[in-house]
């Protein structure tokens, strides 16, 4: 197991860990990754990955128009909205 | 003993109690128990039209299957117009505009929701201590240290405590790696995790989509069948929802088996377990042997890899599912100068420690350079685990295991994550295989705390699984 770059991982997850907690999460992550490392020894050279455990085919339905989610419904939980849009700080200069 | 759904329905039909009186009785209990098992309780006024409609149906002599029954709903199910928080700060102000498929079925069958049950944040935990709204207290006390507050288990800890304390007749939970069965066991009630794909995940706040499954927590096995009859239906909105023909789980539930039944006990599960836990297995074995059921030793080859597989796959899926919480479309937004700052601040301040930890694990095992070694390898080992179960279930009809490796422990007792994760050692393998599992109370520990056993059945064979559990329940039932 190589060292864990906690800054990179938290950036990937869009989290800004407070500096005083970086070590806490870094150590915790190291312990857990070390704990799950035993999987590497399992021979899976002839095994396919399992995605959907029941492996049933997806059901097909008719493509019928139905009414759901009005604009007001969708925006009703928005922290900030402007007319029919979610409002965020300016992203282009 | 608490009243079962069929007993309550009988009292309602015979007009010994009205729907409103019934609701008030449970509501008073929900408000007076101080176990923090609800994030939100719904006053009678806000349910009055459902209560009156239900009473009308009883008066007209055509009640629905769950008519008037007060249910607790884990705060992970979206409930239209009712705050749904996943016990997280980031969703603490979220009011869904739609009803989850499962809760809609329960409403269609006449049940009335008494409130939203506290749970671990985003269902990540085994003790209900990660909730933003504080821990749930197990209604049971250790007879040798009465003052200690114990955990109810998790993540459906509030759902389990609410049923155990008597503030709802039954409750809905979700189970990803044991989150229905483990708290049911620690609170002395019944918890059923149906086969993956039985009950739609639509409208349930997602944790790990290849594992999440809804199921009931109840006072008795028959009640679990009542709830399962309502919620076990195909749904086009969940692409993993199976469209097989469902059965009536109440029919034959109290009948004995027509064929000879063989149950496997995995001996590797019982190495290094306490006497208390061994007793549960022995008692169950003795009780069912009287009914001509045969027990055999079975051996899994993959048990030691189950927790590792789970703690790669579940955080990976969680990390991906929880990417949607960005402070833009719903949930709590924290201020920031730029769009990126809003994302970072909202997520960092909105998620608790355990959720943050799991997002980080997930991001790590999915990141470039590690994906094949961890995530893909875990998906392959998951197939080996599934094959292992299928091999065993070719030899036996059911598998019997303890539900938990220990009784309820003190709040604050287990601080390091790995020792907490080991609580799910007996439930995680079943979840990975996608099989149905039910935990029923099997006896008390030396400290007077409830313990449970788990029966595991084959895919979509909940009917015979419930039949077996009902039989065992009759033999093992104990009073508080």
Task: Explain the overall architecture.
- The complex is a heterodimer of chains A (93) and B (480).
- Chain A is mainly alpha-helical.
- Chain A has three helices and two strands.
- A two-stranded antiparallel ribbon of chain A has the order 1-2.
- Chain A starts with 5 loop residues before the first helix and ends in a 7-residue tail after the last strand.
- Chain B is an alpha/beta fold.
- Chain B has a domain of 325 residues: Amidase signature (AS) domain (Amidase signature (AS) enzymes), CATH 3.90.1300.
- Helix content of chain B is 38%, strand content 13%.
- Chain B has an eleven-stranded mixed sheet, sandwiched between helices.
- Chain B is globular and about 65 Å long.
- Chains A and B meet through helix 1 and helix 2 of A and helix 9, helix 10, helix 11 and helix 12 of B.
Short description:
With 93 residues, chain A is mostly helical. Chain A contains 3 helices and 2 strands; from the N terminus they run H-H-H-E-E. Chain B has an 11-stranded mixed sheet with strand order 1-3-2-4-6-5-10-11-9-7-8, sandwiched between helices.
What topology does this entry show?
The complex is a heterodimer of chains A (93) and B (480).
Chain A (H helix, E strand, L loop, with lengths): L5 H7 L6 H18 L34 H5 L5 E2 L2 E2 L7
Antiparallel strand pairs in A: 1-2
Chain B lengths: L4 H9 L5 H14 L5 E4 L2 H16 L10 E5 L26 H8 L3 E6 L39 H9 L4 E6 L5 H6 L3 E4 L19 E6 L2 H11 L30 E5 L8 H15 L4 E5 L4 H19 L17 H12 L2 H14 L4 H25 L2 E5 L14 H5 L6 H6 L3 E8 L5 E7 L5 H15 L4
Helix pairs in contact in B: 2-3, 7-15, 8-15, 9-11, 9-12
* Rg on CA atoms of chain B, Å: 21 Å
Q: Please trace the helix and strand order of chain A, writing H or E for each element.
A: HHHEE
Low-confidence stretches of chain A: none
Mean pLDDT of chain B: 96
List segments of chain B where confidence is low: pLDDT < 50 over at least 5 consecutive residues: none
Largest sheet of chain B: 11 strands, mixed
Overall body shape of chain B:
globular
Summarize the helix and strand pattern of chain B as letters. HHEHEHEHEHEEHEHEHHHHEHHEEH
Corresponding CATH superfamily of one domain in chain B? Amidase signature (AS) domain
Biggest interface, residues from each chain: A-B, 51 and 73 residues
Assembly status: heterodimer
Mean pLDDT score of chain A, rounded?
91
Strand content of chain B: 5-15%
What's the architecture of one domain in chain B in CATH terms? Alpha-Beta Complex
First-to-last CA distance of chain B: 8 Å
Counting helices, strands and paired strands, the structural category of chain B is alpha/beta
**What's the total number of strands of chain A?**
2
